[in-house]
DNA sequence: AGCAATTCTTAAAACGTATTAAGCGCTACT
DNA sequence: AGTAGCGCTTAATACGTTTTAAGAATTGCT
């Protein structure tokens, strides 16, 4: 009814009504109810007044005093809710939300980037500072921003490994998972592998490549590594590779599943059966909207767990609990239908 | 290296470094750049110091003072990122993010609900207060919370109509869209409609029902309104309805598309052709993950636009610009394949 | 009664910012 | 030379809370 802007009641209003001082009101609200300093009678008057005026504490004032405001930042170098990539981001968001909720933190989404190419430092001001700390996420990061952030030692945890000195992160253990893949192929009898890498050189790519090399070294397999554009994967090319002795291909996934799809198509056109004639492993999981009907063998990226762990690490940092600054999470293997023993050999150690 | 907890720099730190007073720092930060009081030299020293220390305004202190902190709350009565309902929420989130970003606001996601059933008032404290204002969203709201919020006149806009006195909202104009549907069916020659309502009594349901009644009143059609559980829609029932003269069914959508799917199945079993024997209109759009291959005729809910408009309204409120407090957005019609003229009549005005 | 111990209550000082009125050193008039 | 005016800077205050140290009131003891 009355639309006048009514000031919210403060502790002083309560104090006046209850006939005590403002400090007493605060004490009633904050004391440990176990061994209380305040007699029941006084407490009663205060709580009555609180009820009568509908008082609620001003969170700004409260957090101003305490230094912490229980806000966790979430900064993405791309849009937070991108329609075309929701499958990529959603599990991360989910994990961040869940863990933050459990720990009693609210989330600040830094969306106000806009004009300046989504820099953290808009007008020389670190906007992240409104939160106690921040979880970072994104494919196309700005390294300068990251370095500056770390320099200021603003508490930050990146989801995914990023090669920035002193930067805390939680990442998927691509190296170990890829190594496992190689061991598994070797165990099935494959002796000649082909590694198809995406043309970008990101940290995840490096980790996978490293794991691949490790696996090869341990098994003493032959290999052929090459960087491939999806357009280059033709039926002819594929046939050529097989003729060269290759029995399994290890594929790095791309954002949009193009390479895997191209491979699938080329194989169809060349009348190559997967996994009969050729085993294929995908180093990660394709987006769920993928058109590919194929259930690729490989491993999955524990996105939600990564996000939760990142939040956990950040909060530990904030609350001065001892915390490791880097963490690798295992990638659960995915048993699909694209891997089998090679045609020629029976299966196990044919020599 | 040094893990010591370093206090975040304040204006006083800046002031010391720049050799000015704290007030000057504040002025540099807040003045209207047009007619500035502060000479370029001083301003330069201050901004240099800001950059050097990585200063960021403390939002708590700022909003305590009465200023704005350019934080917009987003409160959902359910989990913010629910996996099973991402199609429902995503367009809203998208709209909120886009509009907030354009207006230079960051977003606060209130996730720290926890134990008390996602109440806004945790321990009697209105947690929304950290933000300047808040956009609300959710199917299963807590009316008491809403009323209390409005009572405190904390700036709030709900996405969707909610029957709470003085509550601002942006909603889809279900009434108008439903009325249109009835007019359209009447225009095609339908004279006997059946209205299948979901068993819940939410505001959107009320609006649709109202529009339906209006449409009927304007066209003078016969109708049969009933609340139906999906299980009740059987082939027999359907046959019975048709025998009674019904040529078109108007269906209220549910969260999970159950009613529409049940209808489809029952029609199949009763050998009733849609739209040949029976026209069906869906009052809203089914989730995109819907199994139903059917392209229902009806209208779609402008979720992203609703969200954007809600943010716009909220910011107008915050910045003391005149703003309407309720807004209905039109629902664009969807021309599907489930509506046709009734069998019996040729099509237009048979009398 | 006198004094110490205990119980209750409060004044006061932060926390970091925005804002206002006043202060300072100038210049430009009269 | 005196003073009004201007340009720049700052001291002071308020915002609502938590927290601490000290004050007041009451009790207990000799």
Strand order of the largest sheet of chain A: 2-1-5-6-7-13
What is the total number of structural domains of chain A? 3
Shape of chain A: elongated
Largest Cβ-defined interface: A-B, 54 and 54 residues
Order of helices and strands of chain A: HHHHEHEEEEHEEHEHEHEHEEHEE
- What number is the mean pLDDT of chain A? 83
Low-confidence stretches of chain A: 345-351
Largest sheet of chain A: 6 strands, parallel
Return the structural class of chain A.
Answer: alpha/beta
Percent helix among the residues of chain A?
25-40%
Count of DSSP-assigned helices of chain A: 11
Q: How big is the Rg of chain A? A: 28 Å
Which CATH C-level class of the largest domain in chain A is it?
Answer: Alpha Beta
* N-end to C-end Cα span of chain A: 90 Å
Q: Which architecture name of the largest domain in chain A does CATH use?
A: 3-Layer(aba) Sandwich
CATH superfamily of the largest domain in chain A: Response regulator
Number of strands of chain A: 14
What fraction strand of chain A?
Answer: 15-25%
And the CATH topology of the largest domain in chain A? Rossmann fold
Oligomer: homodimer
């Amino acid at each position: 009814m009355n639309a006048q802007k009514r000031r919210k009641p403060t502790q002083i209003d309560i104090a006046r009504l209850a006939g005590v001082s403002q400090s007493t009101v605060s004490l009633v609200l904050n004391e440990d109810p176990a061994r209380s300093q305040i007699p029941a009678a006084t407490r009663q008057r205060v709580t009555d007044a609180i009820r009568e005026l509908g008082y609620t504490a001003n969170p700004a004032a409260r957090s101003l005093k305490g230094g912490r405001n229980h806000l966790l930042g979430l900064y993405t170098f791309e849009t937070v809710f991108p329609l075309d990539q929701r499958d990529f981001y959603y599990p991360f968001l989910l994990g961040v939300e869940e863990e933050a909720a459990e720990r009693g933190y609210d989330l600040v989404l830094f969306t106000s980037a806009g004009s300046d190419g989504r820099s953290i430092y808009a007008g020389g001001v670190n906007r992240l500072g409104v939160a106690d700390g921040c979880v970072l996420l994104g494919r196309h990061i700005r390294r300068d921003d990251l370095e500056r952030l770390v320099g200021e030692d603003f508490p930050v945890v990146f989801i995914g490994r990023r090669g920035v000195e002193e930067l805390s992160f939680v990442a998927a253990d691509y190296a170990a998972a890829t190594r496992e893949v190689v061991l598994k192929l070797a165990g099935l009898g494959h002796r000649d592998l082909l590694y198809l890498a995406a043309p970008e050189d990101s940290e995840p790519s490096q980790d996978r490549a490293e794991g691949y090399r490790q696996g090869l070294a341990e098994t003493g397999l032959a290999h052929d590594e090459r960087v491939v554009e999806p357009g280059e994967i033709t039926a002819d090319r594929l046939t050529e590779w097989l003729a060269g002795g290759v029995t399994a291909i290890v594929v790095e996934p791309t954002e949009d599943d193009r390479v895997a799809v191209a491979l699938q198509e080329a194989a169809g056109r060349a009348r190559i059966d997967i996994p009969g004639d050729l085993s294929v492993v995908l180093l990660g999981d394709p987006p769920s909207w993928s058109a590919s009907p194929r259930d690729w063998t490989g491993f999955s990226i524990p996105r939600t767990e990564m996000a939760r762990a990142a939040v956990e690490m950040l909060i530990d940092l904030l609350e001065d609990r001892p915390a490791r600054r880097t963490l690798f999470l295992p990638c659960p293997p995915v048993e699909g239908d694209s891997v089998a023993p090679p045609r020629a050999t029976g299966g196990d150690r044919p020599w």
